[in-house]
Design a protein that fits this description.
Chain lengths: ~1000, ~450, ~200
């Protein structure tokens, strides 16, 4: 019985009868046959009881909703097959992500189907273990406790819930007579908010227009990874920075560590840790001194403030040469520019002054109102402040908290362990968690009322003013969970009195719709509310361009002064940064993300310590050594990774791992960086993510969990690059391998003839009569940031198994698409990192095809290197003969539930794409340009009698790419986007000299700097 | 007489009856050592079998493969055994055609070794495929799915090459056995008499039978001879036709054939030495035979050594970046130890064979043959796995270490081979009675008082 | 397709047809006219011995020959998505009750259906047509689209004369060779990746 059958059955067991019919009904309709493995057990066809209008067997339905994996609030379309969500894709006309989606967004499905979800309400029994109870019972218990407790002693911790639910919670607490509302996001942007208040006297955060800035300086802001709204910013960044018709912007990244964002910078400046502000003010000093650009009239007011930041003086403090500072200042004011402070630049003790300094820099350069816009009030944190968490902890410690409710936050894990939040929770007599998972905080609770997954809820979200995004259930709840909004309303009803009067809505959906009725009135649209609501549902929400608002310097601006934290001698400065894949650890239970090689380190399933090779040599540390990192707050063990992208006096460690709970994928894996951070809040009430540490080798060693074999490309032109100047002056000359003699004309002809004959031969047999496509792809490396969203998209689309850490250490991960990372330069030359997405090149003259003894690997008439899984015998010769190494072998039976390596523990397998065959043990598999999508589109075209148009087929990787670096289409259609790009001046083929004639053309990366 | 140089020891050639008696004696009741040996090799084989079952149950992942090294110990061992198989035919067929008398004493061993080596080799393509239960898809046969095999694929050529070679060498062995089985039949008793009676194919040794027999033997020899060259050439094309740096070279066919005969002769020696002791065949297999084999070793060893040099030279001379870096990696990369094992065992040790004393010293030859076998296994490992570990895509380079499954199956293959060999040795004459009789000088009169 | 397009009329037809039909069916036995072209009006035979019938035994003895043969109900009335989707789909219980709310109340097999429907249960039919694994068969492409129309493919081409089957059995082997024969005669794709991906 195939996995998909099991999925269908599982659905039956897991959900209530009526839903069972729903789910199974269509499944029975035939989708099973697609991948059933011919078992002789009688298969059942189970009809619907009542047919569902929008569900046709084998045809996908799409629902618009909002991604809640991070505070950005991207719009997604959920692809639903047979009543189950199988894929998330960006909502094309959404203001924030414009149809794109990052890796974390893709993996939201694995939150929905996570095998470690809390499957129903749990209560802690006398023995101290959790046991299931009924919702009735559970809610009654909470009701009693709340009734008994004095209102002031009820505290409620939530994550960022900007929107109706946020208002419900505040209102609910207020009516209860409590002021114990805590919003906690580990990255609270406290520094930026503090600085904005100081400099511009406003509480709202500015909105940065990356698209308009031709010159961008980022002071630590990892805006391509986690900062604020990565997908949106990636789009803006590529718009201004990607090479287009002879022009591109310049991007300078200022941070002691080269993050993924830093790797995409034309220039990486590594100042002394904590001195970004000095550099910013020094630049401002030069600008004001030399009246560069067009500074606003009152910029002169800042002269005294900037007096002490003359380049020479600053150079000594921040370790950036005075010439560099002068140059940066001039370049910065040469055109529309933007400076942003954030990420790790805004997480050290003096971060608020860094942020303030950058505000001033923007101000004197006249960017405020141009690229730094107020009025949109982006709200990435729902007003979270670490200080509030500290207050709560103290309250808990001195026993003045009677009831603690936690929703959507995990402070027991994601706060400095010195704070002792988990321990303090023990003083609270009654703790309720609304968590969907048994995370560290939930483990401390007395009662767990599991919330719906965001994909199962009615809700809305406001990432910024004027954008109200809707969430709707894309499928029936997987488990016996209940939406927290409903629980709160139910509680209010039970408690009666004030509460009951205040909250009359029967369900949270009604409450939400009431809120939207008000919104409907505000917007004063003429259509009826129902029409308004339905349209919002279809579009994914309502949005409008916010009206920009002017700001002027506040009194605090003059007081800005940078006092970098001193680093004790003989110790490293540790930077604990958010993983661009696992963020602050909330995504650590998603197997796709655990297995996704980190864009910077290329490691999966682990916590590593980035250390400079020279520093490592002195300590006698090599790659894979287990090191002990000790700060005043504590010590952790991590695996050493030699990374030339950090200063010699700096080490860096990612957050996200080291969970002590949170399910099978997250538990007991790697180390938790929070254990190294000081608990005391900074001057601006945030967490300090820098620490002075010692590093020592433990003598233990482990094999790095990575496929990365060689960090240098041995001058083989895999990832090619060119400088802007060079490109504009003498154009781009593709690199040729040392031996690559030009391929004789004759051979070219012969191959062309061969291809033509082959096509004709096929055509006579009726293949693709009328069409003659040659599917191809173009990947623009000047757009690709290496974010790896495409990799996860591929996992989701093509049912790729997750193999786990041990097999990854043996290089056996199955990702059909991998982002190769190569180092260039280093040493006295500037370090350069190049990335290249490597997937099957669909060669026109493929080495893999002739060596297959059974024609499992063969060439399709439309130019694909097809792999017929059920014909494969597994000789693996194709993989040996593939120069790109993009064929992946099923070493184990990942799809067999009885197998120890089974990759989709129930209900994860509900996510499987019914259009893609499950590959069994001993079979070679590979990327086929999402052939299922190609065939699907061809079916559609034939049914409607129209030919395929360019853009009808979109591969999963292309669809997700936030930078729009991947273009897919028909190379034989001269009008198609891809064939135009394939002839671009920057185009080259990887390993051209082998004459494999790849269908993928890479467009060389362009660096906007002097030296390549 | 001390001043006179010691003359060659004069060997008193055995009489016909002695020959029959001595050799038939090898078929006598086996001693304890034999059973101990047999028990040991069967145990080893069973360990291998267990490992294989484990692998079939859970998938090839239990072996040590690490992409990009998709071919490891199994294919290495496959080529190793196919190579072993070659000297058999060379010694028996080619030397027969050249009428070189010394072969008679050793050719049976060589042939037996050939047949069992091919039997062993034939297992490995099956062991190494991902879906052993579909391996029959490599055989072209009409099926309702209307599918056919890809004759462009060298793996398919292999299927034909190996099966052909197995068939021919088996026939050759059996035909050669007939007169001896007949001889054994005449002295045997009990169930063995019945066995020999059947397998002797009613051989009575009449002139007419002899006439047909010698013809048949000659033709088979003629048929087998080209296979010595063709089979291993085809095997070498498994690699030569690919684009993998380190595989993609034109010298592979001769290089592999030479290597094959080299390793084959080595194993013949390894087998003969104990055999000769255990079966007291010193009178039939003596230094001269070893010296001749040694010369063959020397020749092929030189060829192999030359091939090594040429490989490196071409890698450098081609100016091909991938080739160069691949060969640099061989010598100085993670697998330097394997490479140098191969070069020392196959390139340098055979140089000792220039010395007659070594060639005629049986212990020395035995030791040398062991080293050469080791070296030849590593040669295949280096060519196959080490080349794969360092190909075109730098990011996808990787280091491969075999797991206990690989090693057990490798050991098991030796168990399997020696099991057959031992069983054969006790049931069929390991030295050709008939041909030995042919080559001894005019038979002496029986001593009266004997 | 007429009936498929006008369900209301369909229901009405069924109701009347059922009553008349069963009145008729209770009368004289009719020989099974499976092979020769439908001698209109076809009357489904009385089946006394169901054990002898080909094909798997279904939980309810649903008679395609009565529904599609005798009452001429279009296949697509129940298997509605055959022409638009990869899978033809199974009729919901609601579809059954559309007619059987009234029709055939007296028949024990129909009563089974009505019981099931009224008690919100469904009938778990046994899958008859088993396609080999690892292949995609889009029904709609074989019924609509120029090549399909040219080849005059109907449901019967692969499923046999279901309208004459008292109990449905797998008519064609549905094996790869069988697919290819048809694809070759009709000169349509024989590219592996057209069905295997």
């Amino acid at each position: 019985m195939s996995l998909l059958e099991r999925a269908a059955e599982a659905a039956g067991e897991a959900v209530s009868r009526r839903r069972f019919l729903k789910v199974l009904g269509v499944a029975g309709g035939g989708s099973l046959a697609a991948t059933a493995c011919g078992s002789q057990s009688p298969e059942k066809l189970i009809p619907y009881l009542i047919p569902v209008e929008d569900q046709v067997p084998g045809v996908a339905t799409w629902y618009a909703t909002t991604c809640r994996e991070c505070p950005a609030g991207c719009g997604v379309h959920a692809r639903v097959r047979e009543g189950r969500a199988v894929k998330l894709e960006g909502n094309p006309d959404h203001p924030i992500n414009r149809g794109k989606l990052c890796a974390r967004g893709q993996a939201a499905l694995q939150g929905l189907y996570n095998p470690d979800r809390v499957r129903g309400p749990l209560a802690r029994n006398a023995a101290g273990n959790f046991e299931p109870i009924s919702w009735q019972d559970a809610i009654t218990r909470v009701g009693e406790r709340l009734g008994a407790a004095p209102g002031a002693q009820v505290w409620f911790v939530t994550g960022n819930e900007a929107g109706t639910f946020d208002r419900l919670v505040s209102d609910w607490l207020a009516t209860l007579g409590s002021s114990g509302r805590v919003v906690y996001e580990p990255f609270g942007y406290e520094a930026l908010r503090h600085a904005t208040r100081e400099v511009f006297g406003t509480d709202e955060l500015p909105r940065y227009d990356f698209g308009a800035a031709r010159y961008l300086v980022s002071f630590g802001a990892d805006f391509l990874e986690t900062w604020a709204s990565p997908v949106e910013y990636t789009r803006g960044f590529t718009a201004s920075h990607a090479f287009t018709d002879g022009k591109m912007g310049k991007f300078v990244h200022v941070e002691p560590r080269m993050s993924l964002t830093g790797q995409n910078a034309d220039e990486w400046i590594a100042p002394v840790p904590g001195t970004e502000g000095v550099l910013a003010l020094a630049m401002a000093h030069v600008i004001v001194r030399d009246r560069l650009g067009l500074p606003p009239s009152d910029a002169a007011r800042l002269r005294p403030t900037l007096q002490s930041y003359a380049p020479e003086a600053a150079a000594e403090r921040c370790g950036v040469s005075a010439e560099a500072i002068e140059r940066l200042a001039r370049e910065f004011t040469a055109g529309p520019s933007l400076a942003v402070a954030g990420g790790m630049g805004a997480q050290h003790a003096d971060a608020h002054s860094t942020a303030a300094a950058v505000h001033l820099l923007n101000y004197v350069a006249g960017n405020v109102g141009r690229t730094v816009v107020f009025g949109a009030a982006p709200n990435p944190t729902g007003g979270s402040r670490y200080q509030r968490l500290v207050d709560l902890t103290q309250a808990m410690q001195n026993g003045s908290v009677a009831v603690l409710l936690v929703h959507g936050a995990n402070p027991a894990y994601a706060s400095p362990s010195g704070l002792g939040f988990a321990a303090a929770m023990l003083n609270v007599p009654f703790k309720v968690s609304f968590s969907r998972f048994l995370d560290e905080t939930a483990m401390q609770a007395d009662l767990i009322l599991p919330d719906h997954d965001p994909l199962e809820q009615w809700n809305d979200f406001e990432p910024r003013a004027g954008a109200t995004l809707l969430q709707q259930p894309v499928m029936q709840p997987v488990f016996d969970t209940r939406q927290s909004g409903d629980v709160l309303l139910e509680l209010a009803r039970r408690m009666g009195g004030r509460m009951a009067q205040r909250f009359t809505a029967a369900t949270y959906k009604d409450y939400l719709q009431d809120a939207w009725r008000r919104l409907h009135q505000q917007r004063g649209s003429r259509e009826t509310f129902e029409a308004f609501w339905t349209e919002a549902l279809m579009r994914g929400g309502v949005w409008s361009e916010p009206r920009p608002r002017g700001v002027s310097l506040a009194a605090g601006a003059a007081r800005v002064a940078v006092t970098p934290p001193a680093v004790p001698e003989a110790r490293f400065t540790l930077i604990v940064y958010p993983s661009s894949v696992l963020y602050d650890g909330r995504a650590a239970n998603r197997p796709w993300l655990q297995e996704l090689p980190d864009p910077v380190s290329k490691l999966g399933w682990s916590t590593w310590l980035e250390i400079h090779p020279d520093a490592a040599r002195e300590l006698g540390i090599t790659d894979g050594d287990i090191v002990e990192v000790g700060s005043d707050a504590g010590t952790v063990r991590a695996v050493a990774l030699l990374y030339p992208g950090v200063r010699r006096d700096v080490v860096a460690l990612p957050l996200g791992q080291g969970h002590t709970a949170f399910g099978r994928y997250a538990r007991d894996r790697g180390a938790n960086g929070y254990q190294l951070l000081a608990a005391a809040p900074t001057a601006f009430g945030g967490v300090q993510h820098y620490a002075a540490v010692t590093v020592r080798a433990t003598g233990e060693h482990e094999v790095l969990a990575t496929r990365a074999g060689n960090r240098r490309q041995l001058d083989r032109g895999i990832a090619q690059a060119v400088t802007l100047a060079g490109l504009v002056e003498e154009g781009f000359e593709p690199h040729h391998e040392a031996h690559a003699a030009p391929i004789p004309e004759r051979i070219e002809e012969v191959l062309d003839q061969w291809q033509e004959e082959q096509y004709r031969d096929w055509k006579e047999r009726g293949n693709y009569a009328g069409e003659h496509p040659r599917w191809g792809m173009a990947i623009d490396l000047s757009r690709c940031t290496g974010c790896s969203a495409c990799v996860t998209a591929c996992y989701a689309e093509n049912n790729l198994p997750v193999v786990g850490r041990e097999l990854m250490q043996r290089g056996r991960e199955m990702s059909w698409m991998r982002i190769e990372r190569y180092f260039e330069g280093g040493g006295e030359h500037p370090l350069e990192v190049r990335v290249v997405p490597m997937l099957c090149q669909q060669c026109g003259n493929a080495p893999c095809e002739p060596v297959c003894p059974v024609f499992a690997a063969y060439h399709t008439p439309d130019g694909l290197n097809a792999q017929v899984y059920n014909r494969c015998v597994g000789t693996r010769y194709c993989s040996n003969n593939c120069p790109y190494k993009v064929r992946y072998f099923n070493w184990f039976d990942y799809q067999e539930p009885s197998d120890p390596t089974f990759s989709w523990p129930e209900p994860l397998h509900w996510q499987l794409n019914p259009d893609v065959t499950m590959r069994s043990k001993g079979v070679m598999e590979k990327c086929t340009f999402c052939v299922q999508r190609i065939r699907g589109a061809q079916h559609q075209a034939r049914m409607s009698g129209t030919p395929l148009r360019d853009g009808d087929v979109v591969t999963a990787c292309q669809q997700s790419c936030p930078a729009d670096a991947i273009v897919f289409g028909d190379l034989n259609d001269p009008g198609s986007r891809v064939s135009r790009l394939a002839t671009d001046g920057r185009g080259y083929h990887v390993l051209d000299g082998l004459n494999t004639r790849p269908a993928i053309t890479y467009l060389a990366r362009v660096w906007n700097r002097a030296e390549a | 007489m001390a001043t006179v140089a010691r003359p060659e020891p004069v060997r008193i050639p055995p009489t016909y009856s002695e020959i029959t008696h001595d050799i038939a004696a090898t078929l006598g009741r086996p001693g304890r050592i034999y059973y101990v040996l047999l028990g040991f090799v069967i145990t080893v084989m069973l360990i291998g079998a267990a490992a294989l079952l484990w692998q079939v149950r859970y998938g090839l992942g239990v072996a040590g493969y690490r992409p990009p090294v998709m071919w490891g110990v199994y294919i290495t061992t496959f080529v190793f055994w196919v190579g072993i198989a070659h000297s058999g035919t060379l010694v028996s067929a080619i030397l027969y055609l050249f009428r070189s008398a010394w072969r008679t004493a050793v050719y049976r061993t060589a042939e037996v070794m050939t047949v069992f080596a091919v039997m062993t080799a034939g297992l490995f393509p099956l062991i190494h495929v991902g879906r052993i239960w579909y391996a029959y898809w490599l055989i072209p046969y009409p099926n309702q799915r209307q599918l056919w095999v890809n004759f462009k694929s060298p793996l398919l050529w292999d299927v034909f090459a190996v099966t052909t070679y197995f068939t021919v060498s088996t026939c050759f062995l059996i035909v050669g056995l007939i007169p001896d089985i007949a001889a054994a039949r005449d002295v045997a008793t009990g169930w063995r008499k019945k066995l020999y009676a059947i397998t002797a194919l009613a051989w009575r040794g009449t002139d007419q039978q002899w006439r047909h027999y010698t013809r048949a033997y000659l033709y088979l020899a003629a048929l087998a001879t080209p296979l010595v060259l063709s089979v291993h050439s085809v095997v070498s094309w498994d690699f030569a036709v690919s684009i993998v740096p380190g595989w993609h070279t034109t010298i592979f066919a001769p290089y592999f054939v030479a290597g094959a005969i080299y390793s084959g002769c080595a194993l013949v020696i390894t087998l003969l030495v104990p055999l000769r002791k255990m079966f007291k065949l010193e009178r039939y297999i003596h230094e001269d035979h070893f010296e001749n084999l040694a010369k063959l070793l020397l020749l092929t060893g030189m060829l192999v050594g030359y091939a090594y040099v040429v490989e490196y030279f071409i890698a450098w001379y081609s100016g091909n970046d991938a080739e160069r870096s691949s060969f640099y990696f061989r010598a100085f990369g993670q697998y330097w130890w394997a490479t140098w094992t191969m070069i020392i065992c196959n390139g340098f040790l055979p140089l000792f064979l220039w010395f007659k004393t070594i060639r005629r010293s049986i212990p020395a030859m035995f030791l040398l043959s062991l080293f050469i076998n080791l070296g030849m296994w590593f040669e295949r490992f280096v060519i196959i796995s080490v080349s794969l570990a360092h190909e075109y895509e730098p990011y996808a380079m990787g280091h491969y270490t075999p797991s206990w499954v690989d090693w057990s199956i490798l050991a098991g293959s030796f168990g399997w081979f020696f099991m057959w060999f031992l069983l054969f040795a006790k049931n069929f004459p390991m030295v050709s009675i008939a041909e030995v009789k042919e080559i001894i000088p005019m038979p002496r009169k029986e001593r009266a008082h004997a | 397709m007429t009936i498929g397009q006008r369900p209301v009329l369909a229901v009405a037809t069924c109701v009347i047809a059922t009553i008349l039909g069963w009145a008729g069916a209770l009368g004289a036995q009719q020989p099974l006219a499976a092979q020769q072209p439908p001698a209109a009006p076809f009357e489904a035979p009385e089946i006394s011995d169901t054990a002898g019938l080909k094909g798997p035994r279904q939980p309810v003895f649903f008679r395609h020959d009565v529904h599609t043969g005798q009452y001429q109900i279009d296949c697509r009335y129940c298997h509605s998505s055959a022409e638009t989707a990869p899978y033809p789909g199974m009729p919901s219980m609601k579809t059954c009750m559309g007619c059987h709310l009234i029709a055939g109340a007296s028949i024990p097999e129909v009563q089974k259906v009505r019981e099931a429907a009224t008690s919100n249960r469904v009938i778990e039919w046994i899958k008859v047509h088993r396609m080999p694994p690892f292949v995609h068969f889009p029904h709609m492409r074989h019924l609509k689209g120029e090549t399909a129309v040219k080849a005059e493919i109907t449901c019967q081409t692969c499923h046999g004369q279901v309208e004459r089957m008292p109990q449905v059995y797998q008519f064609s082997s549905l094996k790869m060779g069988w697919c290819l024969d048809c694809h070759k005669t009709n000169k349509v794709t024989t590219d592996c990746s057209a069905c295997h991906y």
